[in-house]
């Protein structure tokens, strides 16, 4: 399949599984502890006014990020419920009335997702993203102001130091959480997601052995977007003057949509240039960060990722290579 006839797909890792976003549906495949692979499928329905916004440069980045956070949170919640159900089964004695009642209650809860529950999870996902991004933006600015307020008069230097603090903050956070077994497996599924997309884009047959040959790093990853948002923020913030810490924080929050929008366009630009020998280095910082956010997956994890991707292709009306 030529690259020109391919759709551009993306996804995300979830607890013990992978979600892929197709043209018509988002599909999550999760491996249960009994080795069964279960699916969670949500039709993609986008309001016309959202579609129009997604065609406007700079604006489309913010819209895409918020939409991804909202929809991704539903699939993450599904995977967490499945994982919790398995953990509950392990901790309960088989055959007891309590265990049977707990399993039954869990199944009823999972099958009883109403529209209000889905909307609630989506809103929570957006709020979680917004809160996390604000904290990640504001805290480094406060630290830099407290430590280097009187050391330099050049605002650009202050912004550069703030950017370095953000990177250190990010790397430390990712390293610490990657030490936990659950997050390590999440990062392995992240690697499995990238491998499947890379294999598909190369036109390879989607088998475990084939997919494992591909790199776990990918230019369109959200990890790359995080790096771009830091670098773009250094440039954007340099155009604005502040006289106090509160003004600095206010500007950071106010300009956050601008930084996100420009970062999204920068990521699209570098992805388009990834095959040019001289310019592909623009995407290297994001690939380096993925050394932390992805891990080499097992064959079983890759199999789950392939199952999710194939089901997504099936719902999109396509057929992967046999």
TrEMBL record:
TM regions (residue ranges): 113-143, 163-183, 217-237, 249-267
Q: Which Pfam families match?
A: DUF1385
| Coiled coil stretches, renumbered | none
Which terms are listed as keywords in the entry? Membrane, Transmembrane, Transmembrane helix
- Annotated protein name in UniProt: Uncharacterized protein YqhQ
Which taxonomic lineage does the organism of this UniProt entry have? Answer: Bacteria, Bacillati, Bacillota, Bacilli, Bacillales
